[in-house]
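Question (not urgent): is this output format expected?
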Amino acid sequence: MKKIDARGLDCPKPVIKTKKVLEKHGEAEVLVDNEVAAENVKKLGIKMGAKVTKVKENEGNYKLVIADFKKAEKKRDKEGKEKVIFIKSNLLGEGEAELGDILIRGFINTLKEIEPLPNKIIFMNSGVKLPCENDEVINSLKELENKGVDVLTCGTCLDYYNLEDKLKVGNISNMYEIVDSLNQGDVLEI
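Got this back:
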C-alpha cells in the first residue's frame, strides 16, 4: 500500500496527492495533521468509490486507509456532465439587497420543483452564509439533500466569515473538489 505523508500541506494539496496515488495504485495510506484535511481526503476516497477507514492518532494526526477503489458513477446529462449550480453570493442579482435576498430564497426554493434536479449545489464567497444563517434556504436545501443533491460549502469561505461551526446543511468542501466539480460539470453560475 502506497503511503502519503500530507502533514503540513495546505488545502487542497493532501487531496490532490491522494487522488494521484489512488488513480495510479488503487489504494493508499494517508497521514494528515488536522480534522479538515482528514475529512477532505475521506470525502475524496468515498467519491472515487473506495472504502475509507479513518483513525485518529496522537498529537492531532490522522491516518486514513483507502482501499477497494472502484470509480463511482454519477447521474449525468446527455453530454455526460453532472448538473452543478454554483452560488457565489448570498444575494441574487445586483441592486437592492432586500430584493436580492428575496430572489435567492425564491431561486433555491424553486430548485426543489425542477426536473432533473441538479447533482450538486456549491456555495462559495458570501454564498456560504445561506446554508448557515437563512432558515428558509436551509429547509429547502435539506429537502434537496434528501432527494440526493450534494450540497457543498467552501471551507475556506466558512473560515473567513467565522461560520465554520454554523453550517446547518450539506458538507464542507475544499478547493480541489469545487474546481473538479465545476470543470467536469454543466454549470449554472448564480
